[in-house]
Amino acid sequence: MPVLKPFRATRFTSKAGDPSGLLAPPYDVIDEAEAERLRQLDPHNSVRLVLPEGPAPERYTLASERLTAWLDKGILAEDVEPTAYVYGQTFVLPFGAGREPVERSRRCLFAALKLQPLTAGGVLPHEETHSGPTEDRLALTLACQAQLSAVFLIAGDSSGDFQAAVEAAEDGPPLLDATTPDGVRHRLWKLVGRAAEAVCRLAGTEPALIADGHHRYETALAAAERLEGRETARSVLACLAGERDSGLMVLPTHRTVRGPPPGGQWPEALADAFVVKEIDLTRGGMGGAAEGLASRAARLRSGGMVMVVPASERAYVLEPRSEVVAASDLPAEQEGVATAVFDRIVLRRALRLSADAAARRGLLDYFKDPAEAIAAAGPAGAAFLMPALDVGTIRHAVRGGERLPPKSTYFAPKIPSGLLIRKL
After folding, report:
1. Of the candidates 258, 284, 271, which has an alpha carbon nearest to the alpha carbon of residue 365?
2. Distance CA 297, CA 18 (A)
3. Are strands 364-367 and 254-257 parallel, antiparallel or unpaired?
4. pTM of the prediction?
5. What is the mean pLDDT of the chain?
């Protein structure tokens, strides 16, 4: 089972300024334009640590020197006693155009999670990773001798006791109260002593599912090997939400393949593997159709998806043929998961590429926004719009030990960098 402990966090002090300008999304959802906007937002924005400027390896040295300087100047300071932190997010669900916004909130726990191999069963991964990001994060972690961002996990909570405990733990004014430009409100409360230990125990009574941060967990495992004998390196900065939290939200991550399939055109190249049904776009064509097509994809089951071919201004529902799925050696638990079907049938069967190889060659990219996915397809490519998965489906899909493909989910809102740092 997961083992969680209070720890001494390093946090921004009042010298850093308005905390709303100090937080940044996780590194893997920040493009260069967003990174520059965050740098301009505040000279101490955490993007300057998690995505330092310049080429490697100089940028890792820059981040380390910057972290040391901020500690020396009192911009950052380490808490005196081991602490667990209750973290609250309040946000508006992105229902889409024309729908009334709905405010939601969720409560999480920050603690130090003892590292264990991902095959041990206490911490469950749910998707594969690409190799490049892990190498980058490891170099940054070793240079800074710190974990700069948390792994986000879903705590098993069949009794509801963990959820009740984190909700009851909000007592008094928060340590931090910030609202980031995306409209999400972030608050942080401190728990020490027996209260902290009790909540940590409740978070570790059942296996935890990694929601976001597979690369960060793998990085922590690799860093622990490099820093053998250092006790602090045997744990990772973790943020856990209970599986019963009504604020848990999983969005789809859409796929774009740049370029045509070998020896054919879309959709003919997939007709032997999918039942292909063209979507009527005569009422307005492709312009402005992305939201409606994504809604169409969201209603699909049994591994279905929507394919959009911008060059021909056509879109199709793809329903996998059962005999092809059966022959694809997909685990039975994943045969109805669209991202797994895409990986085995579109990428491996039709394009003869793994997701990692396709991404490294620039042929495969991932998008939260369906319009961006469609726009990125170019003159010969196609966008594949995915339905979202719920937490129960994710747990079922990986219960046999097999992971889903990279970027199968997008948990929102993200856990930002800049809330807490854990020194090694």
Report:
1. 258
2. 41
3. antiparallel
4. 0.87
5. 92
